[in-house]
Structure formats: structure tokens, C-alpha cells
Amino acid sequence: MTTALSPDQVAGTTRVLVIGDDPSVAEAVRRVVAQQSGTGVVVADGRSGLRNFFEERPDLVVLDIGAPGRDGWEVLERIRDLSEVPVLVLTAHDVEEERERGRSGGADDLLAKPFGAQELGVRVQALLRRGPAASAGAPQPAVYRDGNLEVDWPAREVRVDGEVVGLTKLEFQLLRTFVRHPGQALSTQQLLEQVWNDPFGIGPERVKFTVLRLRRKLGWQDERKDVLEAIRGYGYRYTPVDGRERSR
């Protein structure tokens, strides 16, 4: 079910999407959004929240990780597939593991329950004040193309030379991480944090083996196609094919 938070027409420049079934959260957000002359929508479950997000492109998302319908961390992951829109994550666990998972998953802020309406309002207002930074929420292209590689982010479909390539969830997340940081040297530790969400429980060898599988599936073992450089003693750097050709 989708419920308007404001009786005003949807004409404001500020749009906030609340994914969760807590009326007190919706009311606190409504008050802040009203001060911004904006509009807000609350949806009770993650599946409907994603549908609304892709259709409406809000300026801010308030995401309750415990919302029914779909795992909240997966919802955050899908949002980050296409957008850098600010996301405030609400969680029932005020523990460092949750905060680390939120940061590595792309959340801009995390607020643990229970919290007061005033505190929630302050957090929402702080994210909305980024204003033009909400331009960072401008959607990225739904399809990424580089050389013979094509990635459809919403469909989570990868093609090489026009043929569909089956990637595991970890391999897809690893590819996405490299694509989002072109030309940047990423350490093994950074990859463990951003892809595995468990930097303390998994050895660096797992990164190496997953990279090897990804290279094999994408045909990056050929020197002419291997755009993923191994940096000895550090990690990896992804340089798009187009970028390599321009630098020659």
C-alpha cells in the first residue's frame, strides 16, 4: 500500500521516499518535508519501495532495514546499483557490525531504534540540505557498456560479445564495485568490506579466487582484454577499455 504523506499536490521540488511500516517515522518525515515545501510517500514493504524508487526517483530515501517484503540490505543494494541518492538507514541494532554494513553498503547515515521524532527530523533535514548534492542522486545509466562487456544493472544481466554470462551474486557485486571505481586502486581490504560485508571473517585468498573466476567468465584473461590490473601486495585496478585506448 502506498500512502501520500502530504495533502498537497505533488509539486514540490523535494521528494522523500520512506520504506517502512512505522507511522511515527512517516509523521516525523512528513513534518520535515513540509518545511521544505516538498512531498513524501511512504510504502510499507521493500518490494513496493523499490518499485516506487525506480518510478519516482526521490531526492532522499528513508529505509527501515526491517521492513517486510524484501531484505532491507538487498533494497539498499539495488538502490545503489543505479543511484547515489542519499539514504538514511533505520535499524533495530545499534552495533558496530550494522554500522559497518551500512557504510559499506552505501548508506549515508544510520539511525538505531528507538529514537525520537526530533532526532529523526534532524537527520532527514541534514541530508536534504545537501540540496544540489541530491544531484548526486541523478540516476546512472541503466546499462553499462565497455568494449565487449554489457551490464544491465536493474536486470542484473551481464553479456560478453552479446552472450549472457552467468555470474554469482559475489561475482556480480565485485564487478559492480570495479565499474563504480574506474581507474582507482582498490585494496583487498576495501574489496572485502564492499563486496563481502565481512572484512574480519574472510581471508584475502577469497578475493583472489573470485577475481580469477570473474576474469575467466568475462574473457579478461586475454592480455588485450584484461582491463583488471593486479597490484602486487595491494589489490586491483579496473581501467575501462575505452580509457585504455585513449591513453595509448
List the helices and strands and how they pair.
Layout: E1 2-4, E2 15-19, H1 23-35, E3 39-43, H2 46-56, E4 60-64, H3 72-82, E5 87-91, H4 96-105, E6 109-112, H5 117-128, E7 143-146, E8 149-152, E9 157-160, E10 163-165, H6 169-179, E11 185-187, H7 188-196, H8 204-218, E12 228-231, E13 235-238, H9 241-247
Helix pairs in contact: 1-5, 2-3, 6-7, 6-8
* Residues in helices, as a percent range: 25-40%
Judged by helices, strands and strand pairing, the structural class is: alpha/beta
Are there runs of 5+ residues with pLDDT below 50, and where? 1-12, 131-138
| Average residue pLDDT | 78
Q: Beta-strand percentage?
A: 15-25%
Number of helices: 9
CATH class categorisation of the largest domain: Alpha Beta
SSE pattern, N- to C-terminal: EEHEHEHEHEHEEEEHEHHEEH
Distance between the termini: 54 Å
**Widest sheet: strand order?**
1-3-2-4-5-6
Radius of gyration: 20 Å
Number of strands: 13
CATH topology of the largest domain: Rossmann fold
| Main sheet: strands, sense, barrel | 6 strands, mixed
Q: What is the CATH superfamily label of the largest domain?
A: Response regulator
CATH architecture of the largest domain: 3-Layer(aba) Sandwich
